[in-house]
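Structure tokens please, single chain.
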Amino acid sequence: MDTEAQHTERDRSSRPSDSEQPSDPDGPEERSRSALAGRAGRITDWVPGGRITVTLLVLLLFLLLLSTFVLQPFQIPSGSMERGLRIGDRVLVNKLAYRFDGRPQRGDIVVFDGTGLFGDGDYIKRVVGVGGDHVVCCDEEGRIRVNGQSVDESAFLYPGDRPSTVPFDVVVPDGTLFVLGDHRADSSDSRDHLGSPGGGMVPLDEVIGRADWIVWPFDHATHLDRPDAYARVPDAESGAGAAESGAEPTPAGAEPTPAGAGAARTGTEAARAGTGAARTGDADG
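Here you go.
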């Protein structure tokens, strides 16, 4: 009797309980995927070209977002940054370089909106002075001096160019940049606008980003490193200025000495966003 009772208990326990339900092969996750696939299928059926068109539209949207917020190509239309950047080169500008507490450093190549400062359009120049810097041309050997430190720019200046034929002595206001082209004899830059509103300085808010790469043509493609020429320049000190050169520095917006000395340099300076033709118009000094 005991044995029979035990068998009966085992038989009862082996039966599925009423609360147990067979597993659903199409669970919520699977049904969700099917619904998404169905919607995607309806979209591709509706759009001319089907999946190929949708894929291209998504790719274009991605590139648009990338160009707007992260990286943007610019074309070099003039020789103001030779020898490093040649006419027709395409550079890739990092728009996030200064977005998160970063600031341009001396030696960086930056693209900025020069509208109302240098002329219409976007410009590309090298940062020589940052906020608070005392920038002077020139020392006894003809070199630019920043905060009392002479800078050897021969590694990137255009062959045969002097650091500047225009003497200047300025203190860069906080929140602005003093910029020069590497081809000093063919560049309209901060030197030529010292007597203009803003004093030839570029506000940080107008900086679009840092040029990090030459991407076209392929045989000239390279990474644009920050040169070591400015590595020994000390940080700006309060009150640094006239003692270095024996003359009062020129405030931003004051008339340069000599006045208008750089006005003879002309040329198309604006950097062209994208890969189209360069903008027309002269950027006179």
